[in-house]
């Protein structure tokens, strides 16, 4: 076991060093990674990084197959797997920085490497390992590391699409890869969808009947009835979720901790997956294969649709690009407040009645600044009120 990735810390530091040298879209060093002008021998570090990533992926896949028939991963296995995940995570972060800007040359170099083989392999590992690790509380930390790695891979894929044209080569290669791994992609989406829906289930009025005092503890049988009553889960999904919940000798478990343990990672990573699929569908609008792939993703995409903000910017290539970002729940709430609605109405009235383009732009900038200030102030007041309310309730009880 000690022979596995003996130089893991040095390897992480090396790739971290390369990542930092590319920070801030340092195009000179990004291009240097690909070609060392003036040297008698030149090495494409992009390709070398992918080659190392592919070897890591093959080792991680071997690890999965070894433990796939065992109930749990032993301590030594968890330690070695964690080391491999940490190195892989750093490599994905470095690859992301190699190509951001975007650095077109590095994007093309990466797209014509064996990166897609590694992505296919990792999608298989993610799809199967997430199901296995989520069923035992002793492996939850390892599951978090695995999901963090998935997050970083998705960010890297998003960076590959940065600045690319509609129906371009990279978009086509990405669709090819996802279609080849469609079964695993569907498993990953299903995993997120199951845990995303849990929050709605446990916050519903119907569910409160099982826990009227709000203690956060119910029996697995009651939990099963609640899921069956919601009619959003198949029987196999219900069985899987029950297998992930660890109950005491009385068959009781803390459903609040259970939901928090899985919902937040599913929300964080699921959002980026939704952005990737949305972005890819805009890059490849006429690809029928992608449309078939988006059907199983419908539930996840619908969940994140209200949280998906979009702006259009002028990219480095002087082309308009769409950039997506997450709209927080508090921002959505503040946006619907009366004072903000009034500001919106006034802004529209002023824009309609003002003449020149310059005046309209000034009105828009002022509206944005004022609205952001209003929303931030309202949010702070809400937080202060909610913090004071428990103290008042305690005084009343006394």
From TrEMBL:
<dbReference type="InterPro" id="IPR015925">
    <property type="entry name" value="Ryanodine_IP3_receptor"/>
</dbReference>
<dbReference type="GO" id="GO:0033017">
    <property type="term" value="C:sarcoplasmic reticulum membrane"/>
</dbReference>
<dbReference type="GO" id="GO:0030018">
    <property type="term" value="C:Z disc"/>
</dbReference>
<dbReference type="InterPro" id="IPR011992">
    <property type="entry name" value="EF-hand-dom_pair"/>
</dbReference>
<feature type="region of interest" description="Disordered">
    <location>
        <begin position="379"/>
        <end position="398"/>
    </location>
</feature>
<dbReference type="InterPro" id="IPR002048">
    <property type="entry name" value="EF_hand_dom"/>
</dbReference>
<dbReference type="GO" id="GO:0005790">
    <property type="term" value="C:smooth endoplasmic reticulum"/>
</dbReference>
<dbReference type="GO" id="GO:0042383">
    <property type="term" value="C:sarcolemma"/>
</dbReference>
<dbReference type="GO" id="GO:0005219">
    <property type="term" value="F:ryanodine-sensitive calcium-release channel activity"/>
</dbReference>
<keyword id="KW-0675">Receptor</keyword>
<protein>
    <submittedName>
        <fullName>Ryanodine receptor 3</fullName>
    </submittedName>
</protein>
<dbReference type="InterPro" id="IPR013662">
    <property type="entry name" value="RIH_assoc-dom"/>
</dbReference>
<dbReference type="GO" id="GO:0005509">
    <property type="term" value="F:calcium ion binding"/>
</dbReference>
<dbReference type="GO" id="GO:0034704">
    <property type="term" value="C:calcium channel complex"/>
</dbReference>
<dbReference type="GO" id="GO:0014808">
    <property type="term" value="P:release of sequestered calcium ion into cytosol by sarcoplasmic reticulum"/>
</dbReference>
<feature type="domain" description="EF-hand">
    <location>
        <begin position="198"/>
        <end position="233"/>
    </location>
</feature>
<dbReference type="GO" id="GO:0006941">
    <property type="term" value="P:striated muscle contraction"/>
</dbReference>
<dbReference type="Pfam" id="PF08454">
    <property type="entry name" value="RIH_assoc"/>
</dbReference>
């Amino acid at each position: 076991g000690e022979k596995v990735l003996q130089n893991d810390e040095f390897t992480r530091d090396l790739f971290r060093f390369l990542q930092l040298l590319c920070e801030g879209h340092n195009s000179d060093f990004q291009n240097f990674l690909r070609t060392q002008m003036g040297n008698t021998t030149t090495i494409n570090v992009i390709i070398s990084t992918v080659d190392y990533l592919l070897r890591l992926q093959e080792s991680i896949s071997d690890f999965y197959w070894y433990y796939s028939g065992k109930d749990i991963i032993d301590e030594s296995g968890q330690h070695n797997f964690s080391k491999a995940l940490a190195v892989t995570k750093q490599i994905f972060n470095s690859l992301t920085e190699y190509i951001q800007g975007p650095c077109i040359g590095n994007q093309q170099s990466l797209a014509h490497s064996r990166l897609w083989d590694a992505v296919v392999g990792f999608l298989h590992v993610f799809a199967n390992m997430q199901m296995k690790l989520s069923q035992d509380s002793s492996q939850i930390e390892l599951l978090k590391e695995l999901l963090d790695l998935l997050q970083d891979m998705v960010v890297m894929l998003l960076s590959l699409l940065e600045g690319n044209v509609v129906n371009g080569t990279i978009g086509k290669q990405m669709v090819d890869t996802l279609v080849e791994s469609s079964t695993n992609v569907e498993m990953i989406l299903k995993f997120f969808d199951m845990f995303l829906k849990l929050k709605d289930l446990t916050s519903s009025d119907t569910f409160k009947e099982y826990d009227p005092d709000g203690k956060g503890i119910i029996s697995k049988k009651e939990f099963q009835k609640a899921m069956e009553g919601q009619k959003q889960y198949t029987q196999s999904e219900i069985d899987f979720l029950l297998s992930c919940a660890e109950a005491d000798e009385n068959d009781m478990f803390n459903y609040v901790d259970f939901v928090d343990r899985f919902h937040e990672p599913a929300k964080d990573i699921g959002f980026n997956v939704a952005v990737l699929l949305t972005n890819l569908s805009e890059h490849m609008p006429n690809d029928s294969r992608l449309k078939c792939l988006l059907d199983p993703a419908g539930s996840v995409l619908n969940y994140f649709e209200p949280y998906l903000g979009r702006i259009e910017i002028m990219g480095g290539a002087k082309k308009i690009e769409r950039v997506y970002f997450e709209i927080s729940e508090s921002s959505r709430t503040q946006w619907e407040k009366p004072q903000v609605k009034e500001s919106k109405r006034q802004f529209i009235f002023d824009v309609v009645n003002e003449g020149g383009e310059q005046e309209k732009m000034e009105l828009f900038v002022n509206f944005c600044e004022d609205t952001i200030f209003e929303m931030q102030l309202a949010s702070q007041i809400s937080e202060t009120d909610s913090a004071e309310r428990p103290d008042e309730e305690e005084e009343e009880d006394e």
